[in-house]
Design a protein that fits this description.
Elements: E1 65-75, E2 81-86, E3 89-91, E4 95-99, H1 106-113, E5 121-126, E6 129-131, H2 135-138, E7 142-145, H3 157-166, H4 176-186, H5 202-213, E8 220-224, H6 232-247, E9 251-255, H7 259-265, E10 268-273, E11 276-282, H8 283-288, E12 294-297, H9 301-310, E13 314-319, E14 322-326, H10 332-341, E15 348-351, H11 356-364
Parallel strand pairs: 4-9, 4-10, 7-8, 8-9
Antiparallel strand pairs: 1-2, 1-3, 1-5, 5-6, 10-11, 12-14, 12-15, 13-14
Helix pairs in contact: 3-4, 4-5
């Protein structure tokens, strides 16, 4: 949630401001529509989106979407196709996970949704309005943390938030300090509020960036790797905060390379690969669509592994008394019977519930890498 150009940290921080963060306000300094992007203040209610992508079975209606794209495409100079015909629907009130391996087009998509870059073709609607054309109307209702926060390193955490809020023409100065204190408390930074931002750890900077997004009520939060740099306790706290925000009616759109994080906190998810949308829907439905691994518990793991391979099972792994495998295509009762006939003492036999990781690999044919 970077600051607008009037208060751009990188140009003010005597060379010490954090680099590499996304500055929503500076993406197009000549455009008034970009001015409030980083501040993300509370805004007017927007109408439901129109003209979103065609409905498909199991997909939420576009009329109820907070984000809806239709054939959204971004091709960079030189011909690189970063996003190819994306039809994405993010239901209101959901915690929506945006998944994909490195270079899959997730960050490019987020930058188009926030009006930071123009699409080559296609359309995007956020809070019911077209982006980037309606950025001035849309962005005050959006809080965003993209590629890390931009901070003034020579200011304290509290003073950074005060500066952010002061740059927002819609913010009430009479409640500024109270709202800053509440945001710091919400992300667990009260004790470090007086420390210079340059002395913050990566995790503390992530927390401060999230606090900046929470200075005003939000209809939508867009979070790019929100738990990056946090220790396990910090990750649990941020996940709890995301759930709390969702229970209050805020839609949360987050990208993450942590599949277990998506399973723990998200209600819906989309999977990207090589710039294209592979699937989207409720997390439970995505996991249910993948076949779980076959698990055999036996004191005869070597014999069990041999029989499973003979029966057509793939990726057979034996660890102590537990043998797992990708199940063969034929009836599993026949596999169990073959084990028994071969003298394998079967003490447990069944399919594990598929995880989101199983679904991801089945859909993309790839392992999961860092966020792209």
């Amino acid at each position: 949630m970077a600051e607008a150009s009037a208060t751009e940290p990188e140009s003010r921080d005597r060379g010490s401001a954090d680099r590499g963060s996304t500055d929503l306000g500076s993406a197009d300094r000549g455009s008034a529509d970009r001015e409030t992007a980083g501040r993300q203040t509370a805004g007017p209610e927007a109408a439901n989106p129109e003209g979103a992508g065609p409905e498909t079975a199991g997909r939420e209606r576009a009329d109820d979407a907070v984000i809806a794209t239709r054939a959204l495409t971004k091709r960079y100079r030189g011909g690189q196709l970063a996003v190819d015909g994306l039809d994405l629907t993010v239901p209101a009130g959901s915690v929506f996970g945006f998944l994909g391996p490195n270079g899959s087009g997730k960050t490019t998509t987020i930058r188009m949704l926030m009006g930071l870059i123009e699409p080559t073709s296609g359309s995007a609607r956020v809070l019911g309005r077209p982006m980037p054309g309606a950025a001035r109307t849309v962005l005050p209702g959006v809080g965003a943390l993209i590629e890390g926060p931009a901070l003034y390193g020579f200011l304290s955490g509290r003073d950074n938030l005060l500066r952010y809020d002061a740059a927002d023409p819609a913010a009430d100065p009479r409640t500024r300090r109270a709202r800053v204190s509440a945001a710091l408390d919400r992300v667990g930074l009260v004790a470090a509020a007086g420390k210079k931002a340059r002395a913050y750890s990566l995790g503390m900077k992530q927390r401060l960036g999230l606090a900046a997004a929470l200075l005003q009520p939000r209809r939508l939060l867009v979070l790019d790797e929100p738990t990056n740099g946090l220790d396990p306790q910090g990750m649990r706290e941020i996940r709890a905060l995301v759930r709390e925000l969702a229970s209050d009616g805020t839609t949360v759109f987050l990208s993450s390379h942590l599949l277990d994080e998506i399973e723990q906190v998200c209600t819906h998810a989309a999977v990207m690969a090589r710039g294209r949308l592979i699937t989207q829907g409720a997390v439970a439905d995505l996991s249910a669509g993948a076949r779980g691994r076959l698990v055999v518990t036996t004191p005869d793991p070597a014999d069990a592994a041999r029989v499973l391979k003979e029966q057509g099972a793939g990726d057979v792994v034996a660890v102590e008394d537990r043998v797992t495998a990708e199940p063969p295509d034929h009836d599993l009762a026949e596999v169990n019977a073959a084990l028994v006939a071969a003298g394998v003492r079967v003490r447990g036999f069944g399919l594990e519930r598929a995880s989101l990781e199983d679904a991801f690999v089945a859909l993309t044919g790839e392992g999961f890498d860092v966020a792209g």
